[in-house]
Amino acid sequence: MSIWTDQHQSQSLNQPIVAAAPGKVILFGEHAVVYNRPAIAVPVTDVSATATISPGEPGSGIWILAADLPAPDGKQGSHHYRLHDAPADDPLKASVELALDAFCQDEPIEADSPEPDVLVTITSTIPIARGMGSGAAVATAVVRAIGRYFGHNPQPGEISPLVYEVEKLHHGTPSGIDNTVVAYEQPVFFVRGTGITRLSVGAPLNLIIADTGVVSSTRRVVSDVRRRWSAETERYEGLFDEIGGLARLAKSAIERGNPIAVGRLMDENHELLMTLGVSSPELDKLAEAARMSGALGAKMSGAGWGGNMLALVEAERTLKVAGALRAAGAVSTIFSQIS
Ligand code: MEV
Fold first, then answer.
1. Of 46, 87, 207, 311, which sits most exposed with the smallest number of CB within 10 A?
2. Catalytic residue among 178, 211, 224, 241
3. Does 178 sit in the ligand 1 pocket, CB within 6 Å?
4. Which atom of ligand 1 is nearest to the CA of 304?
5. 33 lines ligand 1 (CB under 6 A)
6. Which residue from 284, 292, 294, 289 is spatially nearest to 328, judged by alpha carbons?
C-alpha cells in the first residue's frame, strides 16, 4: 500500500479534502511506447502534486487556486480564477469537469448556482516540463480529491482513463504510460492499449534524477519524432523494435533483482534515444558524468531535448555520482529508491 492511497477520506461536503499523487520517471522505452512497444515507468514519491477541495461561498461556483502552475492565460499572478472563465483546453478545468461528470452526478446542486461551490487548491513539488509527469500527477490529485469530496473513493482504474483525457490536452497523442503509472502509483510494464502489468522489483533500484534545467515540450518532441518516422518509417520502426527489446530484457532484470544488468540496458537505451534524435548535449553530458563517476548506468528520461537524466547507482556511490552530476551542470538532483 503506498503512502498516497492510505488516505481513504470519503467525507461530507463541508470538510476540505486533500489528495496527492506522485511524480514519475520512465526507466525504459519512451517514444517507442507511443508506437506500441513496451516501456517501464516507476512512480517517484519524493515529489508530489496535492489537490485540496474546500467548500466555497454559496453561489461562488468553482474556483481554482494553483500558485505553483502556469496560469491558463499564461499571465503571471493570475493563478486564481473561476473555472467558468478558463478556456476549454485548460487542463485543470478539464480535470475538474471530468471528475465532476464521473463522481458528482447525483449530488444536489444549489438552485442559484449551475455548479458546485468549491475551491480547488493545487500545489506541486514536481518540476514542470521535465519528464516527471507533473501534468498527470496534478490531474490525478484533482480527480482523486473531487471524487472523495463527493463521497466516492475513486480507484486507479477509474482515475487513469480520466487523466488520459487531460494528458491529450498537454501532449496531443500520449501513449497513456504517464497517467497509468501515476494513477496506479506502482512500477509498471506498459504496452499501449493493453491492461497494466505491475512490475515486481527484485532488488531496490537507487536512482538519481538529474535535471538539465532545460524545459522541454513533450508535444513538440513527440511530433518531431512522428514527422521523422513518417519520412523513414522502416528505419524508425527498427529503432522502436530495439528499444522495445531492451524494455523486455529490463523487465526480467528488474524482477530478478539484477541492477548491473539494468544499468547496462539503460546505457543501451540512451544510445538508441541519441540515434532517435531526442537526446541533447546537456543530457549526454550528464549521462557521461554519471558513468564516469561510477553509476551502473545512465539515460535520459521522458520526451528529451531537455528535462531529466536518470542514473542508477549503488547506494554507497550516491553522493559521489550526485556531486559529479552537479559539477557537470545538473541544476538539481533528486534521489529516489524504487522497490
Ligand atoms: C513522455 O513521458 C513519454 C513519451 O514516450 C510520450 C508518451 O509516452 O506519451 C515521450
1. 87
2. 178
3. yes
4. 10
5. yes
6. 289
Any catalytic annotation for residue 178?
yes
pTM equals 0.92
Q: Ligand 1 centroid vs 224 CA: distance in angstroms? A: 13
Q: What is the 3-state secondary structure (H, E, C) of 110-140?
A: CCCCCCCCEEEEEEECCCCCCCCCHHHHHHH
- Taking the centre of ligand 1 as the mean of its atom positions, its distance from the CA of residue 131, in whole angstroms, is 8
Q: Are 268 and 245 in contact (CB under 8 A)?
A: no
| Rounded Cα distance, 28 and 8, in Å | 32
Q: CA 31, CA 55: separation in Å to the nearest integer? A: 41
Measuring CA to CA, how many Å separate 109 from each of 60, 93, 106, 121, 263? Answer: 12, 18, 9, 21, 54
Provide the pLDDT confidence category of residue 129 given band limits of 50, 70 and 90. confident
Closest residue by Cα to atom 8, ligand 1, is 175
Q: Candidates 34, 221, 226: which one to mutate for ligand 1, based on the most atoms within 8 Å of Cβ?
A: 34
- CA 177 / ligand 1 centre spacing (Å): 7
Q: How far is CA 281 from CA 285, 293, 309, in A?
A: 6, 18, 12
Show the cell assigned to 14. 463541508
Q: What is the pLDDT of residues 145-176, one digit of tens each?
A: 999 999 999 999 999 999 999 999 988 889 99
Residue 302 CB–ligand 1 contact under 6 Å:
yes
- Amino acid at the residue 299: K
Average pLDDT over residues 25-38: 98
